Structures are given as C-alpha cells and as structure tokens.
Automatic annotation (TrEMBL):
<feature type="domain" description="Hydroxymethylglutaryl-coenzyme A synthase N-terminal">
    <location>
        <begin position="2"/>
        <end position="163"/>
    </location>
</feature>
<dbReference type="GO" id="GO:0004421">
    <property type="term" value="F:hydroxymethylglutaryl-CoA synthase activity"/>
</dbReference>
<feature type="domain" description="Hydroxymethylglutaryl-coenzyme A synthase C-terminal">
    <location>
        <begin position="179"/>
        <end position="250"/>
    </location>
</feature>
<dbReference type="InterPro" id="IPR013746">
    <property type="entry name" value="HMG_CoA_synt_C_dom"/>
</dbReference>
<feature type="binding site">
    <location>
        <position position="275"/>
    </location>
    <ligand>
        <name>(3S)-3-hydroxy-3-methylglutaryl-CoA</name>
    </ligand>
</feature>
<feature type="active site" description="Proton donor/acceptor">
    <location>
        <position position="233"/>
    </location>
</feature>
<dbReference type="Pfam" id="PF08540">
    <property type="entry name" value="HMG_CoA_synt_C"/>
</dbReference>
<keyword id="KW-0808">Transferase</keyword>
<feature type="active site" description="Proton donor/acceptor">
    <location>
        <position position="79"/>
    </location>
</feature>
<comment type="similarity">
    <text>Belongs to the thiolase-like superfamily. HMG-CoA synthase family.</text>
</comment>
<feature type="binding site">
    <location>
        <position position="143"/>
    </location>
    <ligand>
        <name>(3S)-3-hydroxy-3-methylglutaryl-CoA</name>
    </ligand>
</feature>
<dbReference type="Pfam" id="PF01154">
    <property type="entry name" value="HMG_CoA_synt_N"/>
</dbReference>
<dbReference type="InterPro" id="IPR013528">
    <property type="entry name" value="HMG_CoA_synth_N"/>
</dbReference>
<dbReference type="InterPro" id="IPR016039">
    <property type="entry name" value="Thiolase-like"/>
</dbReference>
<dbReference type="GO" id="GO:0006084">
    <property type="term" value="P:acetyl-CoA metabolic process"/>
</dbReference>
<protein>
    <recommendedName>
        <fullName>Hydroxymethylglutaryl-CoA synthase</fullName>
        <ecNumber>2.3.3.10</ecNumber>
    </recommendedName>
</protein>
<feature type="domain" description="Hydroxymethylglutaryl-coenzyme A synthase C-terminal">
    <location>
        <begin position="255"/>
        <end position="361"/>
    </location>
</feature>
Length: 383
C-alpha cells in the first residue's frame, strides 16, 4: 500500500518587505541579500495573524467535507508555539471543523518538526489505512531588528493531507535520521528571539546533510544518480545551494547541472517569502512540483530536512501519475503576487509590535482566518 501526500498547500501573510529596502536601510550592498543570501522578499505577519491562522488559511484550501469526516490525527509542527501547554492543533481542529474523534498534538524540534509530524502521520496511515491525517507546519521566523539573522526572517504555513494511495506524492519507507546535541540556534523559553551562531549553523547544516546522505545511500545501497532531484530545508536560498555544491564538488558537470537546475526550481517561492522554519522544505517541494516539467512516477526525489539543535533526516518520495491535476499552481502564484509591499517604517512598526495575551484587544483583518480579539488571555479567531 502506498501512503503519502494527497493534497498540499501553503499560505503566507499578505505583507512583505523588499530586500532592497532592507539593504538600503542597513547600508548594505543589495547584492549581499539578493545573491549572497539569495532572498528577494521577506514575508511579515500582522499581529492579527499567528501560527494558528496561518495554518488554518493553508489547510482550508485543501480539505473537503469528506476529508474533515475522515481525519483522525492533526499534528502541528512549529517552533513558534503560542502556549506552553495547549497544542495549537486543538484550536486548528475546531477552526477547520474536523470530526471530534481525533488526536490533536503539537511537536517540536526546530525546523525538523514538520518532518517529524509528516513521518508520524505517514506511519499512522500505514497502520490505519482508512484514516486520513492532517499535518500543518507553521511558523513565524523572526530574529529582530538589526540582528544578524534579520535578512533570513519569514512567516507562513504548509498544510499536507496524508492518505493511502495519495494523488500527489508517495513517501517511501526508506528513511534515516541523525541527531546531535549542538547549540547552533536555540530559543530558551524566556527569549523573544532565537540565539544564533550563524557560521556554526551553516557548517552544522552542511555536515549534517553530508553525513546523513552518505549513510542513507550506504544503508539502502543507492548513489547520487539514483535521484532525479534533491530538495533541502531552505532557511535562505543560498543555504541549500551551499550544501548541494559541497556534494557536487567532484561530480561530472552535466550531472551536477541537472541537480542545480532542479534546486533552482525548488527555491522560487522561498526567494519571495524567506524562512518558514518547519514548512521550508515543503514550500520547496511545492515550488519544485509547480515549476518542473512533468515528472515520472519512477523519478526519485530526495528530501533533506534539518532542524537546528540538531536533527536531520533524509528520505525519498516519488510522484503519482496525474499529480499535476492536484496542484494549486495558479492559486499559489496569486497568493504571492497580491501581497502588499511594506515601507521600511511599516516593517519596523510590525517588528516592534508583540501580541501580549494579558492585554485585551480587538483586531480587524479581512483574511479568511484571523485573530478577532484577545480577551482574558484567550485568542478568539474569526472563522
Ligand atoms: P552574515 O554575517 O550576515 O553574512 O550572516 P556573511 O558575511 O556570512 O555573508 C553571507 C554571504 O553573502 C556570503 O556568501 C558572502 O560572501 C556573500 P557565502 O560565503 O556564504 O557563500 N556576500 C555577497 N554576495 C554578493 N554581493 C555582495 C556580498 N556581500 C556578502 N556584495 C547568516 C549570514 C545566514 C549566517 C545570518 O543571516 C544568520 O545568522 N541567519 C540565521 C541562521 C541561519 O539561517 N542559518 C542557516 C543554517 S541553520 C538552519 O537552517 C536552521 C534554521 O532554519 C532554524 C531551525 O532549524 O529552527 C535557521
């Protein structure tokens, strides 16, 4: 029995900062951001959008009434949790109208949590083939004004419906994870922003990919040319390219070019959005599927998931015949094109605002799902 992604979609806040505006304000050569980091735009969320509304706006696009009756597992992967106890999945379960006899949980391990959620959901459906599972990877990546990580911020969510005999992508059972206790990026519970050792985070990422990719191929007796494309967690688009270039150093030029061309297709959306943390790898997957010329079911796609701290995982997948009919390519491009470009002053205001749940307040936001008000430490969502 095949199990995998039956439906997939993303949602990003409808505001962005242009990286040229950031470069001018920071007195930096714009090419450092456009080429050196590889980002053109950075998604910024208003206070009325949090990980719940981003997740709900992503998931609502793909769920039918029948799916909502069949889903019995909702897992949210996030590192931008709004509560130390209550899982965001419980609120999403209600907002999305999913039948009550379901399990709803939130999982954490930096950007890797989206993959942890996906693998748990896939295993759940392998055990219970009549079930459907909803995975939501949702985050707000903020490092703060004038910080080292400032050009690598972003926000958004990816939603995936996991079923047997999926219509888009089969996730194979072959997988390998790698865990190492490293302080490259972490956020103690009293900190608003993560603490980051930028150079260490870059080298840990590259070494983790190199290590797990080599071990995976040894374990399953595969080699580079068995893959059609390699997709990466994309904290900023230069990062995956660095890991890929490292792998391709001594590889035949024509083979290397094909991997690089495919990587370029996978970063088109991320260049316009920035880091989605848990959703980044899957935003790359959507971008790749939306832009690549037809893939064949026998084409193997390798996926590298990375979460600081650190856990990495390499696994593989292949498309299902006719998968293109189930993509939302036009809608995805519209979501990006209709966004509002912030002035630098508006961006600074957004970054200085922090939703304090101890202060009652009301919000106005036209988006399908948004925060309506905060009262008595409870966020009330517009449905
Ligand atoms: P920085 O100090 O601003 O940048 O830090 P830099 O000086 O290292 O320059 C960046 C690149 O721009 C360099 O290229 C420069 O040469 C180039 P590279 O050597 O890397 O190939 N450059 C230029 N290129 C063209 N024209 C120019 C120019 N000037 C310079 N004029 C850093 C950059 C990414 C470290 C910083 O923004 C940061 O700390 N970001 C946050 C951490 C991060 O994203 N790390 C990535 C790996 S960890 C990860 O992926 C996990 C994560 O998603 C979190 C999680 O798991 O939860 C972050």
């Amino acid at each position: 029995m095949n199990v995998g992604i039956d439906q997939i979609s993303f949602y990003v806040p409808q505001m962005y900062l242009d990286m040229i505006d950031l470069a001018q304000a920071r007195n930096v050569d714009p090419n450092k951001y456009l080429i050196g980091i590889g980002q053109e735009k950075m998604a910024i969320n208003p206070q009325s959008q949090d990980i719940i509304t981003l997740g709900a706006n992503a998931a609502e696009k793909i769920l039918t009434a029948q799916d909502k009756e069949q889903i019995d597992l909702v897992i949210v992967g996030t590192e931008s949790s709004i509560d130390e106890s209550k899982a965001s999945a419980v609120i999403l379960h209600r907002l999305l109208g999913i039948q009550p006899y379901a399990r709803a949980i939130e999982v954490k391990e930096a950007c890797y949590a989206g993959t942890a959620a996906l693998q748990m959901a896939v295993n759940h459906v392998r055990l219970h083939p009549e079930s459907k599972a909803l995975v939501i990877a949702t985050d707000i990546a903020r490092y703060g004004l004038n910080s080292g990580g400032e050009p690598t911020q972003g926000a958004g969510a990816v939603a995936m419906l996991i079923t047997k005999e999926p219509r888009i992508l089969v996730i194979e059972e072959k997988t390998l994870a790698l865990t190492k206790d490293v302080y490259d990026f972490w956020r103690p519970t009293n900190q608003k922003y993560p603490l980051v050792d930028g150079p260490l985070s870059n080298s840990t990422y590259i070494n983790a990919f190199s290590d797990v990719f080599t071990a995976y191929n040894q374990k399953y007796q595969q080699s580079l040319t068995d893959y059609k494309a390699l997709l990466f967690h994309i904290p900023y688009t230069k990062m995956g390219r660095k890991a890929l270039n490292h792998l391709l150093e001594n590889v035949d030029e024509a083979i290397a070019k094909e991997f690089i061309d495919n990587y370029e297709l996978s970063i088109r959306y991320s260049r316009q959005i920035g880091n989605l943390y848990t959703g980044s790898l899957y935003l790359g997957l959507i971008s790749y599927l939306d832009h690549v010329a037809t893939l064949k079911p026998e084409d193997t796609i390798g996926l590298f998931s990375y979460g600081s701290g650190m856990v990495g995982e390499f696994f593989q997948a292949h498309v299902v015949e006719g998968y293109q009919k189930h993509l939302h390519t036009t809608q995805n491009q519209e979501t990006l094109n209709k966004r509002h470009r912030l002035t630098f002053a508006e961006y600074e205001t957004c970054l200085n605002e922090h939703l304090d749940p101890s202060i009652d307040q009301v919000f106005t936001d036209e988006t399908r799902f948004s925060i309506e008000k905060v009262e008595n430490h409870i966020r009330y969502y517009k449905k």
